[in-house]
Amino acid sequence: MSTSKSQASSSVRVIVTKDVPAENQQEWLKLAHQLSMETWKEDGCISYNFVRNHQKKNRFVIVEEWESQSHLEAHFQTPHFQKLVPLMDSMSHTADLDVCSDALTISREECSLATTSASSFALGDNRRKRNGRILVLFDTATGSTQDMATLIAEGAQLLDRIDVRIRVVPGEYTSWEDPSIPRDKVYPFASFSDLYWADGVAVGSPTNLGCMSYRMKKFWDDFSQSGGWGRVDGKIGTAFTSQGGHGGGGELVNMAIKTVLMNCGYAVFGITDYVGFKDTMHYGAAVAKKPRDEVDKMKCRRQGLRLAEFVAYYINGRDEAHPMHTKTFDFDHWGFPGIPPRSADMDALKERNSMPHVSLLKTQNNTAAIAARRKKQALIFTKMIDYVHDSTPAMAAWVLTKVHEMGWDGIVSEDSDLINSKSKIAEFDMIIFLNNSGDIFQETDGLLSHIQAGKGVLGVHAAIASFLNDKDESGATIMEPTSDIFERIFGSHFQNHPPVQTGTVIIDHLNAGKLAPLLSTLPAKFTHHDEFFNFTLNVAHDQHNGKGDDGKGEIKVIAWADASSYEGSLMGEKHPIVWYREMGENMAPVFYCALGHFSHFYNGMGPSHVATLLETGLRFCSRSC
């Protein structure tokens, strides 16, 4: 769903131009990173980007967009703004500051409706920049379903950047209830605006004669007849119920609630998780009376977490929230298929079902043990001797931001000694080669030792155009490598490329393996304008299948260029452009993406397909997928 004209015209843009002396830039960017990480979490923040001037290396521009002036003013009052901005101002000069609104309201969708995929519409939606919104809607007569609603909300908030409302449906008192106690004493009455606000809903009802309650059914009937039917399509829903005893019809109620949700256009889902050896919630949590048992509480929390994952992944576009990350965590903890054994300790089960989402365990200091660990280090290596790509600064800034989001530290450097020296390269857990050219380092033993230790290597675009026997800014000349180091690591080496042009990229979702969840937002095919490289070896062929010195590391291609869609391919029908492998006894993750020539792939001004592929590579090479 694209942003409407009325929304676009009411948004506020802020453009701040800052001059930062060279000696202050490292500290200033560190503060900028902290500010950006917190600002993106604010409700109403559509975009918040730091970019750097190509010609004036001391000049940075902050480009912001907010849903409204009130959201911008609220941003000024946040603790992170009041703490960090004065510090940043003290080491920089504000050259210009503009607060703007749209002069034109033409959208990209209006200009290219016929050729823009549904995926592109979703990726442009500002819902990806704000918190996910969950409504827990319930009816209760004895308080049982209300207690479940509270636990489901707790589970949803185990994932960060999720806003939750708990609401009770209005209606007349039943014979079970004391009329002197207001029904909205604990939680407010629901209104139809709550349904419009929410990205996902968890709907809970007592089991009344095998059906949902009269008040819950009436609420949805009234919503439909008020004009709500057909206006909540694309949202996500789940159901829960309390029943008089086991086998009391709870699952019938959950299916009845889901039938109503589907009729209104909600997407509903099942849950394969087990919170105990024999305790699951395939159709939604169904609890006998109040959720007093720890297992019942765990079922409710897990259902709330799963709804939050679906909202965060499918509505907000957060790859790290895909439910398979939780499933994989359980596989690793309990063994396949992730069901706790009979012997599982109750304290261990309780701990598992009350801990923050697995993505937070990987990126935040949630325990003293995690806090004590050394932050992992990434080297973003940008040395260019021959051809210099203008897009490299934007690419490096984007990669550094993503590295920080993963909870890592990173440095951007052109210092060859960091690769040549075995002691220095040993300090890094991941090496990222960006748009390199020329003989960028001399010693290879340290890099090979890095891989033998099981550490990741990522190559982007011209990275494997280093070590060539000729120079040609046009890229048309067929060249040969002067070193085999990148063929040994990535399986192939740059040879040449035809002129920049538009072609078709094919995503091989079936061959993506463990990377499939991270790539699921990409369409099977998309049109792309870029440099399409030719290589010395075709990694798709068996004889060039990336077999390293140890005979291991079969390459999996996840993106192909359709050679018939552009001119100049020398690779045959199967023209790989993005691939990955695991090398050596310690399965070092290696990823290469040949796409990414232009700056607009990294500054938010162009299509996001390249960014999605590169973030997939970063998470693979950091072992966080």
Share of residues in strands: 15-25%
Discrete helix count:
22
Q: Based on DSSP secondary structure assignment, what is the total number of beta strands? A: 23
- State the helicity in percent bands: 25-40%
Dominant shape: globular
Largest sheet: 9 strands, mixed
Please tell me how large the radius of gyration is: 27 Å
Could you list the spans in which at least 5 consecutive residues all have pLDDT below 50? Answer: 1-9, 107-125, 363-373, 542-552
For the termini, the CA-CA separation is 28 Å
Which class of secondary structure composition applies to the elements? alpha/beta
**Kindly state the mean pLDDT as a whole number?**
85
Task: Please list the strands of the largest sheet in the order they lie side by side.
Answer: 14-13-15-16-23-22-21-18-19
Question: Would you mind describing this structure in some detail?
Answer:
- The chain has 22 helices and 23 strands.
- The strands form 5 sheets. The chain has a 9-stranded mixed β-sheet.
- The protein is of the alpha/beta class and 625 residues long.
Keywords:
single chain, 625 residues, alpha/beta, nine-stranded mixed beta sheet, six-stranded parallel beta sheet, 23 strands, 33% helix, globular, disordered N terminus
Topology:
Blueprint (H helix, E strand, L loop, with lengths): L4 H6 L1 E8 L5 H15 L5 E8 L6 E8 L2 H8 L2 H12 L2 E8 L7 H4 L6 H7 L7 E7 L5 H13 L5 E7 L23 H6 L2 E7 L7 H15 L7 E8 L6 H14 L3 E2 L5 E3 L2 E2 L5 E3 L5 H22 L7 H12 L11 H7 L5 H6 L4 H5 L4 E5 L10 H14 L3 E5 L3 H4 L1 H4 L4 E5 L10 H8 L3 E5 L24 H6 L3 E3 L4 E7 L8 H4 L5 E6 L3 E2 L20 E7 L11 E10 L4 E6 L15 H13 L4
Parallel strand pairs: 5-6, 5-7, 7-8, 8-9, 8-12, 13-14, 13-15, 15-16, 16-23
Antiparallel strand pairs: 1-3, 1-4, 2-3, 10-11, 17-20, 18-19, 18-21, 21-22, 22-23
Helix pairs in contact: 2-4, 7-11
